[in-house]
Amino acid sequence: xxxxxGGGCDRWTLTSxxxxxxxxxxxxxxxxxxxxxxxxxxxxxxxxxxxTCMDSxxxxxxxxxxxxxxxxxxxxxxxxxxxxxxRSLILSMHVMNTNEVFVxxxxxxGLHRVTNADLQSRxxxxxxxxxxxxxxxxxxxxxxxxxxxxxxxxxLPLLPIGITLHGxxxxxxxxxxxxxx
Length: 181
Prior knowledge:
Its cofactor is Zn(2+). The chain is 23% helix and 24% strand. The chain has four helices and eight strands; from the N terminus they run ββββαβαβααββ.
């Protein structure tokens, strides 16, 4: 991105009016998008955190009827509750006073029904490096993966008492969000 190939942005600027201007080179430098960012508080208005997959097909805002500034969105491969996800979640809850968490996995996930050995081999073949030390957190069962991640949150003593936890599976074919817990 940003190398002038037309695929990225060459300039991102924050103006004195608090609007974020993205000016890609392929449009001749004209503004195509502005988002008022300084008008929003850093803490989510709905006190909500969503943990979900990085899959580009997932529009979390539309899925949960959210607006920018409503929730913290934590995304990673598989939407798994990793140590780094916990780091962000703990800060969100204790610094930004969030009190509700949605864990959302989805159908058609690249980590569903693959193995660590398969993924480690693929990375090794592509790079010539040993990736055996990486746990990519693949899973065989969507419901079990959601339940396991929600349980990890439920039993973590660093999270505030009384938070609300939800687990769901998003069907990428129908656009339906199915509650698991």
